[in-house]
Amino acid sequence: MRLASKIFLPVAGGLLVVTAIAVGLGILxxxxxxxxxxxxxxxxxxxxxxxLMHQATQEARDLTSLFLRxxxxxxxYRLALSGTIDDEADPKVHEARLQLxxxxxxxxxxxxxxxxxxxxxxxxxxNSRSLVRLWRKTNFERGGVPLDISDDISPFRQTVxxxxxxxxxxxxxxxxxxxxxxxxxxxVTAADGTHLGSAEVLMDLGELLDAASAxxxxxxAIFMDDRLLPIAVKLQDAAKHPRMGRFVQVRAPHDPKxxxxxxxxxxxxxxxxxxxxxxxxxxxxxxxxxxxxGALVGVLVLSHDTHLLSALLQRAGLIxxxxxxxxxxxxxxxxxxxxxxxxxxPLGRLTQAALRIRDGHLETEI
Length: 366
Known about the structure:
6-stranded antiparallel beta sheet, 14 strands, 366 residues, alpha+beta
């Protein structure tokens, strides 16, 4: 093997090994960076959704408070309380219900005209029966039959029970007949301080997530603990709301890849602590959902499309690899020229001089 090869090849091999290690570490760094960015994005999105939920409950409070001190509301309550409020069909309670519909209809119609949605304003009696749901034509349905009665909501509306018993506002997430709602239940008090009942404006969590998903570009899904199914009767149809272990699918992921990445074991883990996982080009983060009392009631799953981020980081990795290859080539070229100029050429001249001296040319300079 020529001397140049003996010198150059080990150096080149060493540089190639170092470069391969550096590229491998670079790939690991890019993957770690991608995971970090996705985790951070999921945390920010969840923080934004929690903020939106808080703002929705505050908006519900503000809207409800507009009606609490109206004389028409107090008069209707006085009329209802003059009857037998434990009787769901009491005529005085029914007349109070009709009175509230008549007097508040212009305000509710104005809200609907301005926003395009009905204001879900609900008045409750002090015994935690429903006085009137003002977004409905009749107050209740039993077996699919519309009934204008004061149905008992105390078995499943703990916010209403506590607002009437403690006479203090109750707010947050609560599972109702239709699933998850954001509520702010306020006591209704007469001008003389008499406790009359409670009232609330309902904010649908699904509608909030629709708006959040569009602005955050994230796919949001909700899974409810199945122990709440006796309350959420509208979610009992397994064809519309499939079961997944101990969970009920309230809001399905839009992306089939995201749906395929969710399983009962993972959701159970997410009930205790936030979880993340990758599924092809989807990154999923699951967060526990707590109701107004702090009890765990379900899991919110956020799914992010990682295609663009992966492509961007992959492109950056390719560029970095190309730059590394160019620098490696330049280093090898510099090493080759340096070895030639510093070692090989002087050694060649020395060899030639030695040969001349051997041949008798003793005047040769070294």
